[in-house]
Amino acid sequence: MGLFNIFSKEKKETLDKGLEKTKENFFSKLGKAVAGKSTVDDELLDELEEVLITSDVGVDTTVRIIERIEERVAKDKYLNATELNVILREEIAGLLEENNSGNAAEFELPADKKPYVLMVVGVNGVGKTTTIGKLASQFQRRGKSVVLGAADTFRAAAVDQLKLWGERVNVPVIAHGMNTDPSAVAYDAVKHAVEQKADIVIIDTAGRLHTKVNLMNELTKIKRVIQKFVADAPHEIMLVLDGSTGQNAFIQAQEFTKATDVSSLAITKLDGTAKGGVVIGISDQFKIPVKYIGVGEGIDDLQVFNKHEFVDSFFN
């Protein structure tokens, strides 16, 4: 158990604080629903359903949670409203357990994949480039050599922002500027990573959902060119979603999972919002592991998603 594997007190405090608004929103609604009720009856379950849906857990996931609670109520006849908290906690933990097998290791990389090629997708404004910068910093602090590829070439700001992060965390950024061919940038970034024997190369890609076909073609082309250097690349395609957009994040996840093989998720901006329930719904609906969550502005506030700690912070 390395130093970084321990979920530190500071990280826990950041997580608690980051989920504060979500928690307050959820439990004030839950409190109203439970007030004056002594048993878990159909009326209370209807109200609970509304609480979950309006907390951005999503309709399908809410239905699953309600069904699980109904089963328990049928089995344990004596359930009362005050126990609802405990049951809810257990059922939500159970759902996350099913959908995120194990907790992701703390910014570790598989030893047999070098360079590890991580392609990052997501629409503009979700915190994609910032997430990449924070990831670069975290890996670098753990002694890993990192290369960044600025292949989001449709936005001058994206290229410049990535270069700034490169300077800030002292990692090389391969960029060709704006309106250049994204796959050429990705090609050079992976080539550089191979030549420099880097541990990880992170490629920022364009966040346009203008048409799914264009996006698909572009991402497929990027994959094809980087496979000239690393046959099984990309090893991971991470979709970044802005948690504060609630249901909109579901729609983006739908679009991107149709366009490319998304293998992990990062959900950002959870600290300023009451919509943190979206983490539960997205994890359940897409069966793609949530790997990182953003719970603050600082570099360390991009945390590896630890579902046990998440549920604990949510219900504590």
Automatic annotation (TrEMBL):
Residues 289-302 form the SRP54-type proteins GTP-binding domain. One of its GO terms (biological process) is SRP-dependent cotranslational protein targeting to membrane. The keyword Transferase does not apply. It comes from Reichenbachiella faecimaris. InterPro entries: AAA+_ATPase, P-loop_NTPase, Signal_recog_particl_SRP54_hlx, SR_rcpt_FtsY, SRP/SRP_N, SRP54_GTPase_dom, SRP54_N_sf. It is found in: Cell membrane; Cytoplasm. Its EC number is 3.6.5.4. Keywords: Cell membrane, Cytoplasm, GTP-binding, Hydrolase, Membrane, Nucleotide-binding, Receptor. Involved in targeting and insertion of nascent membrane proteins into the cytoplasmic membrane. Acts as a receptor for the complex formed by the signal recognition particle (SRP) and the ribosome-nascent chain (RNC). This is Signal recognition particle receptor FtsY. It is a peripheral membrane protein. Its main location: membrane. Pfam families: SRP54 (PF00448), SRP54_N (PF02881). It catalyses: GTP + H2O = GDP + phosphate + H(+). Belongs to the GTP-binding SRP family. FtsY subfamily. GTP binds at residues 122-129, 204-208, 268-271. GO terms for molecular function: GTP binding; GTPase activity; signal recognition particle binding. GO terms for cellular component: cytoplasm; plasma membrane. It is an enzyme of class 3 (hydrolase). The keyword Transmembrane helix does not apply. Part of the signal recognition particle protein translocation system, which is composed of SRP and FtsY. The gene is ftsY.
